[in-house]
Amino acid sequence: MPAHSSRSCRLVPASGEDNLSSGKNRAATLDGQTAAPAEARTSSQRARRENIIKAAISFLEEREYEKIQIREVAESADVALATVYRYFPSKELLYVHALCTWGETFESKVRGQNRNLNSDAARMRALLRRTVRAYGRYPHFYKLTMLLEVTTDAAAREVFQGYTARFERMLGELLVDTAERDREVIMILSTSLLGGLLRKWSAGSLSLRRVLEHIDDATAIVFG
Known about the structure:
mainly alpha
């Protein structure tokens, strides 16, 4: 999951203008007042918030972001529409948190699977290939990342920067045998390569198989 920043995924106050139903950048309001994210303090509140995120993820697994209605998410999570507004004042803010939650599962699997690999080249290759396969299985999640890269929703943008930063940290942790100066260069090259290949795949100009082949070739070139 391509990285660009250093902030963590977390709930932050929303700013800017958004509309929960359409995803357009307009203010999400209740009773004419701009809503700010509510903190889930109690166990029941946390459960409701988690159910909303789970429902959002399940819809994105099946259809594109633009075709998802927040009212459907509320109904699936068995909460009122106003409850979704309370925790996520914009559709983009809801879905960037859904992306973070989805990414946590991927991250835990990668960390476990990479323990048995004995070289930086093998670990980097495995991470990049697993990232491609994850997006290949759930292409709507990758399309969401492209939307979030250019979002004007400041709150969603900040959380997304945390999501992408996690990938950078994960990649850096895998390069244990690489000199620090070289590690930074390899991280930049790897994330740029991955982003470019995934964009071509998403646009239909490159097959998933060719993406994986390019990753293998690039890894071999970088590590000699």
